[in-house]
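Researcher: Good morning. I'm working through a list of sequences from a screen, and I'd like to move beyond sequence-only analysis. For each chain I'm collecting a predicted structure so we can compare shapes side by side. This is the next one on the list. No need for commentary yet; just the structure.
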Amino acid sequence: MTLMMHGAVTSGELWAAWEWEPGIVVPLVISAVLYVRGLRLLWDEHVGRGIRVWEAASFAMGWIIAALALLSPLDALSEQLFSAHMIQHELLMVVAAPLLVVGRPLVPMLWALPSRARRSIGRVTRRRALLSTWQLASRPIVAFAIHGVAIWLWHIPVLFQATLTNDAVHALQHVSFVGSALLFWWAIIHGHGPGGRARATSFGLAVLLLFGTALHSGALGALLTFSRTVWYPIYASSAAAWRLTPLEDQQIAGLIMWIPATFAYLLAALALFASWLRASEERVHEQELARDAARKAAHRTGDDSWS
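Model: Good morning. Structure tokens for this chain:
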């Protein structure tokens, strides 16, 4: 049952309010076990094979942040304060999701499975209907739209307040946020082509979509911040227990969504742009080396066409 239905949690009780819901704990534990087992198999010959050390570290950090957001007292506080609920959602969507995606979890998790299970999964994923659906959903523009719709839809007052009185709706909200965020970040980070050899247009589109997400989510945060109307009256009594008016609580939540979350998207866009520049410089350097090698070879054979 949600905490809002049982009354406010006091500050003294809060630190003991860890969430051990099996529907959250079991998937987290399974994902960690599969990743670690697959990593051990991949790294049996040498560390860094298949998954680089920094990628594994990224997954570990993302997993820890997701676990803290869902299991720590922050989850209990999110039922009392809209601002805490916003912190929880931003940690999941803007921090944990990209870190998990950078960790490339599907590679070690598949390695962790028996060979027969891997072959079965391979056959299923090669089915035309499933493959076509994934190819459509993972297009950067489509992933951007899905994630954006999830963000705006769940902030409609009637839907958001339903998450505080109905556990199934709350679970659906978390699945929507995390699932759409993972899809969006996968399309942004890995959706350019094999080996990071992305076309300039793909990199450029990814940067634009990150800026677009920063703009529309920041706009929602600004609306929450400057609104003179309380969007979620259900928080009124619990916010008062924390010496906040519902409007002050809403303004803090709006600022969290508007400033730090927007900054995170912009930082990711700048990092991707820097990666694009590095990839371009590497390609130019390789082309120059190839031309130099061709000139030397032509010189040895007496061909003057490369001079």
